[in-house]
Each structure stands twice: as structure tokens, then as C-alpha cells.
Amino acid sequence: MTPPSPLLTLNDGRTMPQMGFGLWQVPERETARLVVDAVKVGYRLFDGAALYGNERGLGEGVRHAEVPRDDIFVTTKVWNDRQGYDSTLRAVEESLERLVLDRVDLVLIHWPAPARDLYVETWRALVRLREEGVVTSVGVSNFLPEHLDRIVAETGVVPVVNQVELHPELPQGELRARHAESGIVTQSWTPLGQSRSFGSAAVRKAAERTGASPAQVILAWHLALGCSVIPRSTKPERLEENLRALEVELTPEEVAAIEALENGHRTGPDPHTFS
């Protein structure tokens, strides 16, 4: 088994594994088995969401894992159509019912959905749930600096995490700097960028020097940036391969060369407009 992932300290004093397993597009019928398998090879962070439709499988996998519940970090998210204060309280309650867990370690607002203009009230609801002990930590996903500034100004509570699309073609340097100023952990979704950078000279050279695969090099790049990263796979051998990126050490020059692949390409929606 690969050594456990390093832990990142959150701004609320709690810790979170740096490397995790993302459950987007993992079929419900396979989720429990994959979570159990992932725990066996060393994963301790599982990133879920109500939208993914597999919270029941996630909870089942956690309950059947061969490690204590306290050793596993579970994330879920509130979807756009459940935003609003009372609706968010109900949405998290429903997630807990599907998960059949006593708590969720981290709940995120899935998108700011600015046209709805409900993300501040949604944030107030998550803060209340944290204060009541229903949720351990609270954060956001796909938030831009103006969204972060607004929720902090209106509530005084800084998210522990902002989970955003981040890969070599979209390294999010300015947003990462903004997070660092506020003590927010940057968490990368679609970290491999749909493999678009695998053939680049920067990735190939690093792979040749380290003996790692292109995927492992890019995951190691995220780790070198200090990001939490949540790759997804439904293949047990790929789960283990991804986790072994923890053993790959890149030079500062290699990290910079991969970041220089930036071209602004997004694989997902634009947070400015997606609601």
C-alpha cells in the first residue's frame, strides 16, 4: 500500500488528506465497491456530491471500509437548485440520510450560481450546520474572488476549501494566490485536464526523468503547488497508480514548466455565468 497522503491543515484547525478520490461520474452501483477498494490501497478522502447520485454508495463504502470512520474524510455538496437558507438545511439533512453517516466532514456550495443570488444565504445555512455539529467543516466550490469576498464580508466566516477546475492549461495562479492570503485550501477538480497536456514537452520530460506516467507527473504537480487533488478512476489499478503520485518529486523548474502550459482552456462551465 502507498504511504498515506499528507494532511493539509484547514483554517478551522482541522486536517484533510491532500490526495483524495473524486466520485463524479462514478456509477452508483460501483461506488461502494470502489470506495472499499480505494481505502485498501490508501485513500482516505472521498469527494462526493448530491448531484453525483451516488451518496448511498459512498456511505455504504465508508461503513464497510476496513479502517475507522474517523480516519476517513467525506465531502458532499449542495446543488444549485437547493440553494437558499431553509432549502440548504433540508438538502444537507437529505444527504446525511442517503449517506447513513453521523456527520459529513466537509460540505461545499457546489457553484456560486450568481444569477440565483442565493449563495450568501446558502453559506449562512452551512455555517449554522457547522455550529450545530452536523457538519465538521464548510467550504465552497467554483467560487471566484468576488464571491469569496462577499460571503466573508457578510458572515465573517472564511471557507476552508475552494474546489475549482485546475489543471496545466488552467493553473488558476491568481485564484491560488488569493486563497493563500485567506488561508483557503485550493482543491483541484478535473486535475488531469482530460489528458490534454499528457503529450506536452514539459510533462514528457518530467515523466522521463522520474520514471512516472504523465498522469502521475501532473498529479505530483498539483501536490507541489500545495493543492488538494481528487482524481477519479473506476479501475483499481489506476486508483493505485494515481495514489503513487505522492512518491513523485518534481523540481521547481519542472513545476514552472508545467504551469507555463496555461492557455485558459476550461473543460467545464464558467463560474461567472453558470447557474
Automatic annotation (TrEMBL):
Site (Lowers pKa of active site Tyr): residue numbering on this chain: K77
Annotated NADP-dependent oxidoreductase domain residues: 19-262
Residues annotated as the enzyme's active site: Y52 (proton donor)
Xref: Gene3D superfamilies: NADP-dependent oxidoreductase domain
Annotated positions binding substrate: H110
GO MF, one example: oxidoreductase activity, acting on the CH-OH group of donors, NAD or NADP as acceptor
Recorded superkingdom: Bacteria
Record's keyword terms, sorted: NADP, Oxidoreductase
Reactions mediated catalytically: hydroxyacetone + NADP(+) = methylglyoxal + NADPH + H(+)
A Pfam family reported for this protein in Swiss-Prot or TrEMBL: Aldo_ket_red
Family membership noted in the UniProt record: Belongs to the aldo/keto reductase family.
Protein name per the record: Oxidoreductase of aldo/keto reductase family, subgroup 1
